[in-house]
Design a protein that fits this description.
Structural class: alpha+beta
Distance between the termini: 35 Å
Strand content: 25-35%
Mean pLDDT: 82
Shape: globular
Order of helices and strands: HHHEEHEEEEHEEEEEEEE
Low-confidence stretches: 76-80
Number of helices: 5
Length: about 210
């Protein structure tokens, strides 16, 4: 990837912000209005520049995808909040709590063995039986998927969160909801599959839930 100019970075950031909020790509008119362009031709020029610099990809049908899909939902370590440890409290006999500055708890403390941790927001109910629903935040690690792992993959320009089964007949992506069908990817299409990340846990209105697997 080549470095973007400040204006190109603004365009790229606006694109990401819109997709995070609306779960879809903006129209050319919407992007032009958001960025104050007089013409949709300016949007085309910026799209072409981002493709040329390899931040976006364009297929034969004219659809755009991110070269690095985790850019859309990655957790910014500089802005993510940590939890302060304010002291000690006994779990045995009663005694006075001790106040002290003992540092902070971060995402790395919850998942100490995980590397390259990031998050995606869920849309859909195909993993309902794992207590994953629309609006939940799924926490992933950028690593390989083994047989039986739950993870996010990119295939044919689209992303999905499923349990991966590596079989003789190919890769089978299994939902956790009987209302949805398996997605079967034949061996010859493996090179078209990109592993986005392995499922570590998720956050919903009840708090942080770690993967039992």
């Amino acid at each position: 990837m080549k470095q973007l100019t400040p204006k190109q970075q603004e365009f790229y950031g606006t694109l990401i912000t819109y997709i995070r909020k609306h779960f879809r790509w903006p129209t050319y008119r919407e992007l032009a209005d958001l960025l104050g362009f007089n013409s949709e031709n300016s949007v085309t020029q910026y799209y072409n520049a981002l493709v040329k610099k390899q931040h976006l990809k364009k297929d034969r049908q004219g659809n755009y995808t991110f070269t690095n899909p985790t850019d859309v939902w990655s957790v910014d370590k500089q802005t993510s909040k940590s939890i302060p440890i304010l002291g000690e409290i006994t779990a045995g006999a009663m005694q006075e709590a001790i106040e002290a500055d003992l540092g902070e708890v971060t995402i790395n403390d919850f998942f100490p063995k995980a590397e390259n941790v990031f998050a995606l927001r869920i849309r859909g109910l195909s993993m309902k039986e794992l207590d994953l629903s629309t609006g939940d935040i799924v926490i992933l690690s950028k690593t390989e998927l083994k047989d039986g792992d739950v993870g996010a993959v990119l295939y044919n320009g689209e992303t999905t969160l499923k349990r991966a089964h590596i079989e003789k007949n190919g890769l089978r992506l299994e939902p956790a909801n009987p209302d949805y069908d398996d997605i079967v990817i034949e061996p010859g299409e493996f090179e078209e599959v990109t592993v986005i990340g392995k499922y570590l846990g998720h956050v919903n209105d009840r708090g942080l839930i770690k993967s039992p697997y």
